[in-house]
Amino acid sequence: MQRFLLYLIALVSGFCSPLQAADSHDTSPGIAALVADLQVYEAAYDDIDAKIEVAYTDTRPVHPEDPNTSRVTQSLEQVRFSRTGGKTRVEASGEFQSPARTTATYQLSIFDGTSTYVGADDPLVNIYDGLHNHSRAVYPHRLLSFTVDPRNVRLSTYLLGDSAIAAERPEDSPLPNKTVVARVLGREEYDGLDCTHVRIDIVRVSNDKMIARWDYWLAHERNLLPVHLKGYIGRVSDSIPVAEGWVTAWTQLADGVWFPVTAETIRYDSFGIAKHQQQHQTIVRTIHVDEVTLSPDFPDGFFEHPSIPDGTQVYRINDQSEVYEAYVSGRSAASPGTAATTEPFRNWLLVGNLAAVAVVLAGVALRRRRRARNSHAH
């Protein structure tokens, strides 16, 4: 299953982001100053080694109108994120439990300054040209929305909108009629901290309607790290959040440099909000930072791609999420360009068509046999 998912991600990840569109909306005047401050603070975490644990519990009901039909699923994941000199390494392992089974997960992603290796515990490896951002990359200013918001980029990048996001995540493909709009709503106090309240809207360009919204409270006494967030879905409610999050503990890594230690995000049932204007807790995600070090020392070879065992299927992918080379390690590689993105789809389409023809022919033969039997019976 992991092999199939990795391959599927390699081929279609470009169709999943709602953020890449022309910058058809201007951000508010206060955003430029806020982004400038954020970029200074974010730079303090450029060289980092962090180990975090993410616990997830999902109690969503099988039938939306009957909360008694909930089916509990849980996961516990350990993530180590390391970055220095522009190179990154993400190692994530965990266990997913559902009523039916328990599944172990593992993935390793390494950007060596030139290309990104992504592999799991099965014989499949994707190698991306350039930096391919991992969904488990740790950005302190996005830790509160870690694994909640799929747009895992720096907060300053997020606030700048579509063009900045596309530059940081070139693997994302354009999706028309949606754009990011950010604005500063003012200064407020939250949990005793002086905060800037900033709003990020995902907006449908054709009618200016809000599709999704994130409200962040950025604490000035904490390097503008978010201390609180709320998430909304336009079709559900623009006044009752479907998600809320809080940082519940902090640590000071250096003079004036803070880091969240524990955080919690709660997801509410969308059906209950839309129909009854009531929040029913369905998903709880807790993050605990086990270790974090700034300007760490790493062993030699830590950011080098591992050797690929013989027999491993390898896909090389460009910054447009197109597969341009596919081969099995230990065998002769296919010529560059021969394994274009559409080629696997054509192969599967051919197999599917042949299978469909076989089914039709089998059906025709079966009908003929039945008719022959009936004629003999009469």
UniProtKB/TrEMBL annotation:
<feature type="transmembrane region" description="Helical">
    <location>
        <begin position="348"/>
        <end position="366"/>
    </location>
</feature>
<protein>
    <recommendedName>
        <fullName>DUF3857 domain-containing protein</fullName>
    </recommendedName>
</protein>
<feature type="signal peptide">
    <location>
        <begin position="1"/>
        <end position="21"/>
    </location>
</feature>
<keyword id="KW-0812">Transmembrane</keyword>
<keyword id="KW-0472">Membrane</keyword>
<keyword id="KW-1133">Transmembrane helix</keyword>
<keyword id="KW-0732">Signal</keyword>
